[in-house]
Amino acid sequence: MSNKEKLAFKRINYILMLVGIGVLCTGFFIMTLDEQDYGFGFLGITLGPIVVMAGFILEFFAIFYKDKK
Fold first, then answer.
1. Measured at the alpha carbon of residue 18, what is the angle toward residues 23 and 42, in degrees to the nearest 5?
2. What is the DSSP letter of 33?
3. φ and ψ at 67, to 5 degrees?
4. Nearest partner of 65 among 30, 15, 26, judged by Cα
5. What pLDDT does residue 4 have?
6. What is the mean pLDDT of residues 7-36?
7. pTM greater than 0.90 (yes/no)
8. Domain spans in the chain, listed from the N-terminal domain onward
9. pLDDT of 47-64, one tens digit each?
10. How far apart are CA 67 and CA 37, in angstroms?
């Protein structure tokens, strides 16, 4: 059994995880851009959390993704 067969994830999984982390960071950054008090504007309450949720969904997809081979 080679070392590559022992790894839990394939290369595509790690790429998707990195993209998911980027989406998460982007969502949190969007929330900081809100100009309203305590982040109660559109960016802090609507757009930012939607982007963060998309990042978490992408992370779960990256973890459970299996190659068809």
1. 5
2. T
3. -70, 145
4. 15
5. 60
6. 95
7. no
8. 3-64
9. 999 999 999 999 999 999
10. 46
